[in-house]
# Entry
Amino acid sequence: MMKIDAVITWVDGNDPVHMAKRHSYGPSSLFKMDDIAGSTRYASVGEIFWCVASLNRFAPWINKIYIVTDGQDPKLDEFIAGNFQDPIPMEIIDHNDIFKGHEEFLPTFCSVSIETMTWRIPGLSEHYLELNDDMMLVAPVQPSDFFTPDGKSICYADKYSMFWTWVTRQLKPKKNGKSQVTFKGLMYNAARLAGHRHFFYKIDHTPRAMNRLFYESFYSEHPELMIRNIRHRFRDPDQYTPEVLQYMYLQDKGLCERRPVRGNLLYLIPKDRPGYIEGKLSLLDAGRYRFCCFNSVDQASPEDLAKIRSWISRRLSLEL
# Structure
């Protein structure tokens, strides 16, 4: 059976030490910009517990879970041991471990920079899943949902026009003289680096099937492109999405299989709309989706957050 690890990037932005460090590296205006360093990008209301628990509940075949963090510890051991008899082994990986030899770019508060380096986790399997802590499984999955039997990566993405992305980027007003940072813009940059001019794979908030050997080979040949991403402490429009870079290269070699996002992922972000949360949770109850992203739930009302936590507890059979 193919060995598959899981890598989760996590930060507790509510930690006063981390907050002080973050604010010491940028002007106050930077932290009012949600596309770069707004507080919701770092806030934590326990999502890491849901993410790790969902892997244990619905993907117990995972070999090991690595949690990548900046000198922090989510203290998951007691929680996981109390809910699972044979939990997946876990290890905390510090940013210093993956930036070894490039410590001058630390500390970093940029998810793109961090994801550019997660392949350098010591002992990481060749095939691995990469998740943000607000992603979770909501139904059983198998290795074949992420990798084909011969090792091809399965990418949950839509094909998106590079031309229209370029047009909207030109039309979008600049902030402080710079282009705004957008998910599509970073993916567009990745596709251009991979030699594409017509379309890119627009990935969404699903677990991403990654191949460590690709990054080892690519960045040994193009170290300047690794530096291009990691030199930014905060998100920057010049960066590119490393996962999309990999998928575009692999699909050119016939080593990537694309599957639709629609029907697999439910994306939930709090809205001030009566019945919104209940409606989203009822869709999950219908059993159609396997992945869910509970995005920016720190901005949910206390009542809606309680409903989300209660639903997750029931779905994962947790004792919270």
In short: The chain has one domain: 4-316.
